[in-house]
Write a structure and sequence with these properties.
- The complex is a heterodimer.
- Chain A is 80% helix and 2% strand.
- Chain A is mostly helical.
- Chain A has two domains: 277 residues, no CATH class; 208 residues, no CATH class.
- Chain A is globular, with a radius of gyration of 22 Å.
- By secondary structure, chain B is an all-alpha fold.
- Chain B is elongated and about 65 Å long.
- The longest helix of chain B has 32 residues.
- In chain B, α2 packs antiparallel against α3 and α3 packs antiparallel against α4.
- Chain B has one domain: Helix Hairpins, CATH 1.10.287.
- Classes of the chains: A mainly alpha, B mainly alpha.
- At the A-B interface, α6 and α7 of A face α2, α3 and α4 of B.
Chain lengths: 505, 123
C-alpha cells in the first residue's frame, strides 16, 4: 500500500490505530442486534491491520521511529506515541490476529452467547483491542498502565461471558491477579518518576544513567525494576505467575480464547521488553540484579513443567492453555539470553506463536460449535467427520512442535543459535527436549481425534461452516508459509532486535 | 534512638503507604470471602495514591497557580495521574463486585472454599 493513499489522515495514523477501535466500541454498544454489531466490528478490525502495516512499512523504509505528539505537545511534557521497528511489528501481529478471527466469530459467538449480550461482547472485544494496541504504541509509562487496565478490564468481561459458571470464577481470579500485576507495575513506575521526574520512556532512559550513579537513587531504581519485573510477569503469565491462565482460557468463549491466546500475553511481553531493554538497559539489569539468570530458570521451568501439565490434560482447551505458558517460556528465554539471534527468535516467535495458537484455538472453537465440548472423550474420532477442521488443527499442531518447514521451527532455530552464541549449550538441549514433550501432547490429541473409535457426539458431527474454515485455514496456511518465507517475521525481528540491542548502555 | 524516631517521623507517609500496601495484599491472600478480597485489593491500590502524592506535595506550597505572587507550588502531575488511577481503581472494583453478584447467583455463596466444594475442578 502506497503511503499517499491515506491522504490527509497519513500523519495521524498512530493515533487512529487507537481511536478507531475505541469509538468503534462506543458505536457498537448502540447496536442491539448481534449481526449488526458483528458487521461494524468486522469493518473496524479490518481497517486496523491496514494502518499497522502502513506504519511498519514506513518505519522499515526510513529506519527512523515515527513520533506522534498528542495535541502537539512535545515529549516529555506531552504524551507521545512512538512507533519503532519493534512496536510496529507487534502492532501488526495484534491487529492481524484481531481481524482474522472476526469472520469466525459470527457463528461461534451466535452459538455461545445469548442474543442480548452479543453486541456487548463485540464492544468489549474492540475495547480489549484498543488497550492492547495502546500498550504497544505509547511512549509513556503511565499511559501504558492506563491501556494495560483498559485491556485487562475488557479481558475480564470477555472471560466472564463464557457459558459455564466457572467462567465467572476464572474471571474473578484473573481480576485479582491482573490488578495486583498492574498495581505492582505502577508502583515501579512511581518510583522511577520520583527518581527521574519524567514518564516518557526515552526521556526516562537518558535520565536514569546519571541517576544510578547516586547510591540512594540506585536503590530506588533497582526496587522499581523489581516491582515492574514481577508486575509485568504476572500479566504475561511467566511461570510461576501463570496460575490464572489455564482456567481463564478454558472457560472463556472460544473466540475470546483464540484472541487472548494470540494477542494478550504478547502485548505484555512487548511491555516487558520495552521497559527492560529501552528504559533500564540490559546492562543495568545484568550488573545489579540477576534478572537474566532468574528469567532463564523460570523460562526453562515453564517450558518443561507447563508442557508436562499439558500432556496429562483431558480438556483440549486447557491443554493448549498450558502449552501457551510453555511457549511464553520460549519467548522469555530468548529475551533473557539477550543477543541478536536469541532476540530475533523471541520476536519471531511472538508472531509465529500467535498464528499457530490462534489457529489451534479456532479449530477447537469449530469443534465446540458442532458438538458443544472439547473434552478428549467427546472429541474421539472427530477427525473422520470434521476432517478439514482437524486437518488445520494438525498442521498448526505440527508447527507448534517446531517441525522443520513450519513457523515454529524458525523461531526455535534462532533461539538455539542465540543459546549457542551465549555459550549455553545445555539450553539448546533443553529447547529440543521440551519440544519433544510438545510432540507428546500434540501427538496425544492427534491420536484421539484421528485413530480412536468415534464417540456418540463425533459420529453425528458435521464439518464446520465455511466462515469458520476460511480463517482457520488462513492461519494454518500461514504456519507453513512462515516456515519458508521468513521475510515478514525473521527479517523484521532481526531489525527490531538490532535497534533494541543498539540501545545497550 | 532519637535519630531513628526522627527518620520515622519524617517519612511517616511512606510507612503508612507500605503498611496499607502489605495489609491490602495480605487480605487478598488470606481471606476466603470474595468481597473481603476486593476490599483488600482496593486498599492495595489506595496505597499507590499515597506513594505518588507524598513526593509531589511541598510544604507551604500552593496549588499550581501561574502567577507572580506564588513562587512555590506542588507538582500537579502526580495528582492528575492519581485521578486517573482512582478512576481505574473504581472501574476495577465495580467490575469485581459485579462478578461477585453473578458468582453468588450461580453458586449461592461467596465463600471461596464453599465454591470449590461445589465445583472441585475450578481450583
Amino acid at each position: 500500500m502506497s503511503s499517499s493513499s491515506w491522504g490527509t489522515a497519513e500523519p495521524h495514523l498512530p493515533i487512529l490505530l487507537v481511536i478507531v477501535p475505541l469509538f468503534g466500541a462506543l458505536l457498537v454498544t448502540f447496536l442491539r442486534r448481534g449481526i449488526l454489531a458483528w458487521a461494524l466490528t468486522l469493518a473496524v478490525t479490518f481497517v486496523l491491520p491496514l494502518i499497522a502495516i502502513t506504519l511498519l512499512a514506513k518505519v522499515l523504509q526510513t529506519g527512523q521511529p515515527i513520533i506522534y505528539e498528542i495535541g502537539n505537545w512535545p515529549a516529555p511534557i506531552g504524551i507521545v506515541y512512538k512507533v519503532d521497528q519493534l512496536s510496529a511489528y507487534v502492532l501488526c501481529v495484534i491487529s492481524v490476529i484481531g481481524a482474522v478471527i472476526m469472520p469466525f466469530a459470527r457463528r461461534s459467538i451466535g452459538a455461545e452467547i445469548q442474543e442480548s449480550a452479543q453486541s456487548w461482547y463485540y464492544a468489549v472485544y474492540l475495547l480489549c483491542l484498543t488497550g492492547l494496541l495502546g500498550i504497544v504504541i505509547t511512549g509513556d509509562a503511565f499511559n501504558a498502565f492506563v491501556f494495560l487496565e483498559i485491556s485487562s478490564l475488557a479481558t475480564y468481561v470477555l472471560i466472564a461471558l463464557g457459558r459455564h459458571r466457572r467462567a465467572l470464577l476464572s474471571a474473578y481470579q484473573y481480576l485479582i491477579m491482573g490488578t495486583i500485576g498492574a498495581t505492582l507495575y505502577i508502583i515501579g513506575v512511581g518510583l522511577l518518576y520520583v527518581v527521574t521526574g519524567t514518564l516518557n520512556f526515552d526521556d526516562m532512559a537518558t535520565r536514569l544513567g546519571p541517576a544510578i550513579a547516586d547510591p540512594g537513587y540506585r536503590n530506588a531504581v533497582l526496587t522499581a525494576l523489581g516491582f515492574i519485573f514481577v508486575g509485568v510477569s504476572l500479566k504475561l503469565a511467566l511461570f510461576p505467575m501463570h496460575v490464572w491462565l489455564p482456567n481463564a482460557y478454558a472457560y472463556a468463549p472460544s473466540v475470546a480464547t483464540a484472541f487472548l491466546a494470540g494477542t494478550a500475553t504478547k502485548a505484555a511481553i512487548y511491555l516487558f521488553i520495552r521497559v527492560i531493554f529501552s528504559v533500564f538497559g540490559i546492562a543495568l539489569a545484568i550488573d545489579s540484579l540477576p534478572i537474566p539468570l532468574v528469567l532463564i530458570v523460570l523460562s526453562i521451568a515453564a517450558m518443561f513443567l507447563a508442557s508436562f501439565s499439558a500432556v496429562f490434560e483431558e480438556d483440549a482447551k486447557r491443554m493448549l492453555a498450558y502449552s501457551s505458558i510453555a511457549q511464553v517460556g520460549y519467548i522469555m528465554l530468548g529475551v533473557a539470553l539477550a543477543n541478536q539471534a536469541s532476540l530475533t527468535g523471541s520476536l519471531a516467535h511472538i508472531a509465529n506463536h500467535a498464528v499457530m495458537k490462534t489457529a489451534l484455538f479456532l479449530a477447537l472453537g469449530a469443534v465446540f460449535y458442532r458438538i458443544g465440548s472439547v473434552m478428549y472423550a467427546d472429541m474421539a474420532g472427530i477427525g473422520r467427520t470434521m476432517p478439514l477442521t482437524m486437518g488445520a488443527f494438525a498442521v498448526a499442531g505440527i508447527g507448534l512442535m517446531g517441525t522443520p518447514g513450519t513457523a515454529g521451527f524458525i523461531s526455535k532455530w534462532y533461539l538455539g543459535l542465540g543459546a549457542i552464541d551465549a555459550g549455553h549449550y545445555s539450553i539448546v538441549f533443553m529447547i529440543v527436549a521440551s519440544s519433544l514433550i510438545s510432540v507428546i501432547y500434540i501427538g496425544r490429541i492427534t491420536e484421539v481425534v484421528w485413530f480412536r473409535a468415534p464417540s456418540e457426539s463425533a459420529k453425528t458431527a458435521k464439518e464446520a461452516p465455511l466462515s469458520m474454515l476460511i480463517p482457520l485455514w488462513l492461519l494454518a496456511g500461514a504456519t507453513v508459509y512462515l516456515g519458508f518465507d521468513t521475510q515478514a517475521t525473521v527479517d523484521v525481528s532481526a531489525k527490531a532486535a538490532e535497534v533494541l540491542l543498539g540501545g545497550i548502555r | 534512638m532519637i535519630e531513628t524516631l526522627e527518620k520515622f517521623a519524617n517519612h511517616y507517609n511512606f510507612f503508612i503507604t507500605i503498611f496499607l500496601m502489605i495489609s491490602g495484599l495480605f487480605i487478598v491472600i488470606a481471606r476466603g470471602n470474595l468481597i473481603k478480597k476486593l476490599i483488600g485489593l482496593s486498599l492495595f491500590q489506595t496505597s499507590v495514591y499515597l506513594l505518588y502524592l507524598t513526593p509531589a506535595k511541598i510544604l507551604n506550597a500552593t496549588a499550581p497557580i501561574y502567577d507572580k505572587h506564588y513562587a512555590t507550588y506542588s507538582n500537579p502531575l502526580p495528582h492528575v495521574l492519581m485521578l486517573t488511577a482512582i478512576v481505574v481503581g473504581v472501574a476495577t472494583i465495580a467490575l469485581g463486585l459485579a462478578l461477585v453478584v453473578r458468582i453468588k447467583e450461580a453458586y449461592g455463596t461467596i465463600e471461596e472454599d464453599e465454591i470449590f466444594a461445589k465445583d472441585p475442578e475450578a481450583e
